[in-house]
Amino acid sequence: MVAGQGNQAQRRVVLPQVPDGGDAVEPRHVQIDDDGVRSERAGQPDRRLTVVRDADDGQLRLLLDQMLQRCNITLVVVGEEDANRARILRSSHFPLTYPGSFPIVKDEETRKPVAVIGAALDLGAGRRGVDMGPSAIRYAGLAERIEQLGRSCVDVGNVQTAVAEATPVGDERVRFLKEILQTCGRVADLVSEARAQGRLPLVLGGDHSVALGTLGGLARAHGPGGVLWIDAHGDLNRPDTSPTGNVHGMVLAAAMGLGGPGFADAGWPVPSVDPSRVALVGVRSLDDGERALLRELKATVFTMSDIDRHGIEQAIHESFERITGPGFVHVSLDMDSLDPDVAPGVGTPVRGGLSYREAHLAMELAADAGIVDSLEVVEVNPILDRKNETAQLAVELVASALGAKIL
């Protein structure tokens, strides 16, 4: 199916020929609207010959159900626009892990414009320097790279943030929480505004606590959604389990509504994320409280050991199966998910992370999924970097997530 924009979209369904030479779908299931449908039999699965106009979800489900019952092979082509319909159909009928080699392909893609939102915040971390991350990523040529992909790029600058030296710590269990929530509120405003304008928000951190604002703005616009959390850490501590009091280690728990009363009245919907639609990838450093919470949540988690055994492709495919659904789908990339050998300039480096190619493949698969509504890249620390190498890698990973291809 090719889903376009609004009710005037053109939707095409691949109808491969069934083995006995008959029609894949009976004609009575093809004539599903008043605007007319053209149906032809396709001998090869890469031909798109059936056009369905202005069909509702139930009608398309019926059509695709018949295909699944009668066909051995089904290729679905999903455009980037009208993502809600694509999510409904794919989550119900087309899991991302296919037997054989029949990939999901995006065709006739209308590339959404991108809104770059900076949050030069390091109050949530224990080490200074990630506040310079947004500038380093921009300096590495972010806007130019996005525009090379055929997308317009609007940079709204950095939101206002407090400075640690001039800010009281407050409660040691949730250090600088008041100021962090104020900054995240500004991020949330810009994210929800970008979505209202039809733009894909790209949030640049700063420490990972900025995700509170990103997810909050998305939830304000669309209701709670799902998130792919690519990170060396779980970020699932709570004030009573955190060994440091650093909010960037609590942000995912807080977004799921598990952070306690201090996070509950932040000015956006809480929970911002449906706990059943969270997938963590690249994890290799967890605190005891985080392990206990993960067991309680029965969350989808792919540690680096899992990735070593089964590969990054399976991890990302299964993660998208889990997070697909209503509201939104967000990808949050902490650059410390990569191994320090390839990404040295990060806030909290942990050895044994994703390789250069694993990280790129993860982002390429995110682009291929065609359901990502927003993206953020966090924890770039230029103080610890080598010639802005990590920021340059961040730019290339963003490009992969936005559809850059080798060929």
List keywords for this structure.
two-stranded antiparallel sheet; disordered N terminus; 2 domains; 32% helix; alpha/beta; Arginase, Chain A; eight-stranded parallel sheet
How would you characterize this protein structure?
With 407 residues, this protein is of the alpha/beta class. It has two domains: 6-93, no CATH class; 114-401, Arginase, Chain A. Helices cover 32% and strands 14% of the residues. The chain has helices at residues 57-70, 83-93, 133-139, 142-148, 177-196, 211-222, 251-255, 288-297, 304-310, 312-323, 356-369, 389-401, and strands at 10-13, 50-53, 114-119, 153-158, 200-205, 225-230, 273-283, 300-303, 329-334, 374-378. The strands form two sheets. An eight-stranded parallel β-sheet has the order 4-3-5-10-9-6-7-8, with helices on both faces. It has a two-stranded antiparallel sheet with strand order 1-2. Strand 7 (273-283), helix 8 and strand 8 form a beta-alpha-beta unit. Helix 1 (57-70) packs parallel to helix 2 (83-93), helix 9 packs across helix 10 (312-323) and helix 10 (312-323) packs parallel to helix 11.
